[in-house]
Design brief:
The structure is a single chain. The chain is α+β, with helices and mostly antiparallel strands. It folds into three domains: about 55 residues; about 45 residues, FAH (SH3 type barrels, Roll); about 200 residues, Fumarylacetoacetate hydrolase, domain 2, CATH 3.90.850. Helix content is about 25%, strand content about 35%. The chain contains four helices and 20 strands. The strands form three sheets. Strands 1, 2, 3, 4, 5, 6, 7, 8, 11, 12, 14 and 17 form a twelve-stranded mixed sheet that branches. The longest helix is centred in the first third of the chain and has 54 residues. It is globular, with a radius of gyration of 30 Å. The termini are far apart.
């Protein structure tokens, strides 16, 4: 090897050494950048998921002030008025009111109200005939009352009873919906008390009057979105003492199945209600009694029983 060749080789070796070092630096730098970028992407995705989850968890109310009925979104102690029902695309008007200065009404205004009989095993009597599909019946929308209204005990009924239930609210028109797609049509959840005149039902042969008289069925206090309606705890109290307790995971026919089943035969419209059916046993309500239905995430629906004319 000549001196020139040696120098050339040394130069070449030096060049490759420097090249290798620079290449290694780039790899290290690139690796650090990738790790940093991954962290940023992961943090962004997590923030996005959390943000969307919280955005879905909204509380809506319907309220009366100075003889006028309005819709609103409840944020803490303040109601932000909406131009229409939230499931009809109502948007903020910019007006606000203090919650304590208005009367809360039923947080829904349905066209149709669907109820379900014997949808929990612990509510089915031993000799009761049941079906493999939801045992549906309907009540008129005029039966509904809100969280600050009284339950009316009819003068010509001797026995009325409570039935605490979970209630879903339909968000858009539904017809022939599959079980798999049913969740797309459920807007939110509220609590309900399906009061029944037990002496009217056998006398009438059917349930329309005994389940649907004016002042019987309370709902509220809010219409809540962002809840897992398949796994909601419900607790109900008569004059402060627990009388009913359960979870929607125990429903025989869950809400997805009921949306699918009902939409096979009927058209569900925004605001329509589907009740879960009650849990456990039901007892008699007397004038002066106070019944509470509490659902996690929804709040407590409280109504007092008063004598009707």
């Amino acid at each position: 090897m000549t001196i020139r060749d040696k120098n050339q080789n040394e130069a070449t070796l030096t060049f490759y050494s420097e090249q290798t070092t620079v290449s290694g630096y780039k790899k290290i730098k690139t690796g650090r950048e990738m790790k940093y970028n991954f962290k940023k992407i992961f943090a962004g995705l997590l923030l996005s998921l959390l943000t969307s989850s919280f955005a879905l968890a909204e509380s809506y109310v319907r309220f009366e002030q100075d003889g006028q009925t309005s819709w609103g979104e409840l944020k803490g102690a303040i109601i932000h008025q909406l131009s229409n029902a939230p499931y009809l695309g109502g948007s903020p008007t910019g007006q606000t009111v203090i919650r304590s200065e208005v009367k809360l009404m039923a947080p829904v205004d349905p066209k149709d109200v669907y109820m379900t009989g014997f949808n929990y095993e612990d509510h089915i009597p031993e000799d009761q005939k049941t079906t493999t599909y939801p045992g549906l019946f309907m009540v008129p929308a005029g039966t509904l009352i809100g969280p600050e209204d009284d339950i009316i005990h009819p003068a010509d009924s001797n026995i009325i009873g409570y039935e605490a239930e979970s209630v879903i609210v339909i968000g858009k028109r539904a017809k022939d919906v599959s079980v798999e797609d049913a969740s797309d049509y459920i807007f939110g959840v509220t609590a309900g008390n399906d009061v029944s005149a037990r002496d009217w039902i056998p006398a009438d042969i059917q349930w329309f009057r005994g389940k649907g008289a004016a002042g019987f069925n309370s709902v509220g206090p809010v219409l809540q979105t962002g809840l897992d309606y398949k796994n909601l705890n419900l607790t109900a109290r008569l004059n402060g003492e627990v009388r009913q307790r359960g979870n929607t995971s125990k429903m025989i026919h869950n809400f997805d199945k009921m949306v699918s089943y009902i939409s096979t035969y009927f058209v569900l419209n925004p605001g329509d209600l589907i009740w879960s059916g009650t849990i456990g046993t039901s007892e008699t309500l007397h004038v002066g009694d106070v019944y509470e239905v509490e659902i996690e995430g929804v709040g407590i629906l409280t109504n007092k029983v008063v004598q009707g004319k």
